Amino acid sequence: MQVLATAALAACVWLGFVVSAGADSLLTQALNVVLGLFGLDAIFVASAETVAGGIMLGLLLGGVLVLADERGYGYWVGGTLALLPFLLSWLSLTGRSPLAPEPLHALANFGWLGLPLLAGTFGIWRNSLPTIAIGAVLVLVQPLNLVGNDVSAIFAILGFIFCFMLYIELAYGHLRYARLARIMNYSGEFGSVLNWFGMMLLLTLGFTTLLTAAAFGFHDLLGNVLPPRFHNSIEFNTIYGRALSVMVFFALWAIAQTIFSRQFLARQVE
Amino acid sequence: MWTRKAVTYTGLGTILVLFAPFINNLQLLLLGITLLGFVAVHSLVNTSPVRVNITRRFSDSQIFEGQEAEVELVIQNRGRSIGFLEIFDQLPHEVELVGGLNHTIVRLHRNEALLAHYRLKCHLRGQYQLGKPRLRLYNPSFLFYYESDVESESTLVVFPKIEELEGLDLSSDFPKMYQGAMPIRRIGTSGEFYSIREYYPGDDFKNINWRVFGRTRKLMVNQFEREDISDVMLVLDAREIAGTGTPVHNPLNYGCRAAAALVDYFLHTRNRVGLTIYGEAVESIGVDSGERHLYRLLTKLSEVRPAGALGLHTVVGELRNFTPRSPVIVISTLEQDPTVHAALREITAHGFKLTLIAPDTLEYDRQSRIISPAVYFTASAELDNTISEARSLGARALRWDPDSVLGPALQEVVK
């Protein structure tokens, strides 16, 4: 479960880069601008090689942090990792660095790109909900840019979404079931309940994909049903119109579920 | 019910769907739809009501203080298959869980039955209600849950701990018409030695004390006590003040243990025992004998709660119907009872053979700072005075420290 979640997170970081098609993200640009303010060269850049390097460094540092935390040195190693960039920067700027500037810059770039993995790996293996959430937010926010994306990258987008859901669900599922493991060990049902969880996760992800497709396609259905004046409008034919259609779809779903749910029917009988 | 995770997913999904168009980002739009879709799909999984029956079995539904009881929960699924069911059997605070857990998580197929075990230790007498078991049904990703209680309650009766007493002579001087095994201070044919006297023709040769003859050259015969049934009435103080202290260390609990020990002793020596409890009201169980009567009395002792402020004097009326000149054993803290002096006088005036046991937890209460030193000294002196007065009336009175064993302490007083 933890291995799968870690792999899903790594895939997520990679697919996030593929979806953004190499365009520099807002945060990367912002970091370069800050460096520029101090008269330094831009060192943060996202390419296939740097992203791969970032994934590996993130996994490595995350693993080190996990091992350190297991032995009770989590805060020491975490503190050292947090201070290390500042220390290396200071050594480099004052010309005392034992490393040449190029590898140091590459290391900083890898560290930045591997940040979601560092946080996520620690969260997954140490059952820490805040760091799982930080990893998820970084995965979403880090590759964001103003160029946007469309259906041309649909497979990469679907892959990203699948991996993202897998990461969140497996990491959170492991966290919850690990908490319940003490109780489940007494009942001897641990394996059975976990199998059920895994099976249901895959099934529900499959149904979610179908529902996502239905919600996405609902826009076209509305286009056929609504009067021409409406479906020919500029608002309806932008991505904003599609977003509104999605909200209408889920509003209808909520109403239908409320009306047809068993509890509701039971209350009507009473 | 929605969990925080479901609310977070729905909120994040809605924000992404509404925010993504601003930056023309299909990836975030689809992720938002997926999050909403995931919540929508999960609202249909493992959230419909279930039909689960839970029954409880005990290794022994009647136990004594300090003993353990094995509880077996039989969980039967009468409805649909359930992937994740959390069961929490509600226990009273007074019982301690010493093995297994009253909290379990199971997967139940249709018509499947499972067993869950746990072990309880009961430190305090009482009648405890176990249950109702609480069910919590989660869907696999912890987005929704459904809670309900199952109608399944059981009663566990915890009797006061019984201390084994031996050779107590709390007897009457007067026999009843049916023979029993309670030694009374009359000459008879039991195994208990009474005295020796000179031999008279016609005495049984086997009763001649040959050792005395060897020493004195005079024929002497041994005389033995006569055993007879005796009716014994126990009077227990269950006033509110008897419950002062901690739930475990209070005069009422110790009084119940003393009463249980005495009841067990007298009934097993084939006597007839009755019980009168006063506090909020006067409750009386008439004298009787046998194993069933023992359980009747122990059950009554297990359910006694401190309440009310009726004095010992209210019991005197009940004792008027009791066999005259029989032993009456009063177990009372004697505190804050203005009627106690008059009542003791009246009981002894009726000719009852009075024994007074005052469980004394004052020292413990002072050390635990439940009472102040000033209160301790006042109450202690008052207790000593009452006990002295009881002794002056011919009663056998004992200020009993519950840390000491009752049997030897009573023997001391009886001497």
Task: Describe the 3D structure.
The complex is a heterodimer of chains A (270) and B (415). Chain A has 270 residues and is mostly helical. Chain A folds into two domains: 2-188, no CATH class; 195-269. Helices cover 80% and strands 0% of the residues of chain A. Chain A is built from twelve helices and no strands. Chain A has helices at 2-19, 26-37, 48-70, 74-93, 101-113, 115-126, 129-141, 154-187, 190-225, 228-231, 239-260, 262-269. In chain A, α1 (2-19) packs parallel to α7, α3 crosses α4 (74-93) and α6 runs antiparallel to α7 (129-141). The two termini of chain A are 44 Å apart. The mean pLDDT of chain A is 83. In chain B, α4 (251-268) packs antiparallel against α5 (291-302). In chain B, strands 16-15-14-17-18-19 form a six-stranded mixed beta sheet, with helices on both faces. A four-stranded antiparallel beta sheet of chain B has the order 1-3-7-5, with no helix packed on it. In chain B, strands 6-4-9-10 form a four-stranded antiparallel beta sheet, with no helix packed on it. Chain B has helices spanning 4-19, 26-42, 210-216, 251-268, 291-302, 313-319, 340-349, 362-367, 373-392, 406-414, and strands spanning 52-58, 62-64, 68-77, 82-89, 95-100, 103-108, 113-122, 126-130, 133-138, 145-149, 154-159, 182-198, 220-228, 231-237, 272-278, 282-288, 327-331, 353-359, 396-400. Chain B has ten helices and 19 strands. Chain B folds into four domains: 4-39, no CATH class; 52-159, Immunoglobulin-like; 188-227, no CATH class; 231-414, Rossmann fold (3-Layer(aba) Sandwich). By secondary structure, chain B is an alpha/beta fold. Classes of the chains: A mainly alpha (270), B alpha/beta (415). Chains A and B meet through α8, α9, α11 and α12 of A and α1, α2, β4 and β6 of B.
